[in-house]
User: Fold this.
Amino acid sequence: MSQSQPKPSRITTVSAGSRASDTPLATRQALQPEYGVIGELDNDRWDRAMRVYRKESVVFWQRFARPPVFDGQSVLEVGCGLGGLCVDIANRGAETVLGIDIRQDDIEFARRFRDRELPTPSDHIRFSCEPLSRYHETQFDYVVSKDSFEHIIDVDGMLAEIRRVLKPGGWVYIGFSPLYHSPYGDHDRRRTAFANLGVAGKLLAALPWGHLLMEKQILRRHSKMRREPVTSMHDLNLNKLKVGEFRKKIQAAGLAAESFLVNQGNNKVGKVLSALRALPGLEDYCTYNVYCILRHAGEITE
Ligand SMILES: C[S@@+](CC[C@H](N)C(=O)[O-])C[C@H]1O[C@@H](n2cnc3c(N)ncnc32)[C@H](O)[C@@H]1O
Assistant:
């Protein structure tokens, strides 16, 4: 677990566009007594964790143009983290669910999460750290990804792999937030960097878009904290993907967007950003989330 990630003080609720819109943190906070340490959880904390992930999942599906229909389908989740959405997908009727992630700790935790949440131990939900390149082509009806595409460093490679493993006629549901260039798109890297500056640190962390102005300082402070070079946001697990770039990469991978929604959710700041993003040059800075449904480009009929 990277030192750059914050410790929890409470369970956050989810609100798109707000400072708390990094939804996975909510589940992580509920699940992990000490952020970064996956420990034994008492019943009370498990119950809270389950409630949080169910709520996160409901909110997640609502943000797409239409909900997926998982009945009898084979589903892959890319960047499954602690596994909450995979359990949700199984509960929605999927025949098989595979969650993959690069973090071994998360995958081990996800297995415990599954065994705890499902009535009978089940191997129709599997979790793995193996890269997608190890899987056969055309085997999934759905590929889903929640709040991971702002972290995946090789987005081109991942989209190409997703297309490869997707069955003809299959669906891809990708939603993620917050985008790096949006007001608080640094996933609290700033807050962690300036944590020892007291009130000044809090002010720096509260400044919308401040991370774009202070990137060098943020990297320098993370280098110091980690005692190793942190030379780009990639080292802090952020790919800095812009919304326009993402659209182009989707197309280049041979996928076509059936729907491409942005700034989903209900809050006032989000509405202001949505109005501003129409102005020339502001799209990247005022787009904080993306919820898109994709298919093989060849199969779309306009
Ligand atoms: C913010 S977490 C989201 C986890 C989960 N989807 C959720 O919503 O709670 C992003 C996840 O993407 C994973 N990730 C990053 N790059 C990845 C890659 N190339 N392949 C698979 N998972 C990746 C991270 O390890 C992390 O668990």
Summary: Residues 1-23, 33-37 have pLDDT under 50 and may be disordered.
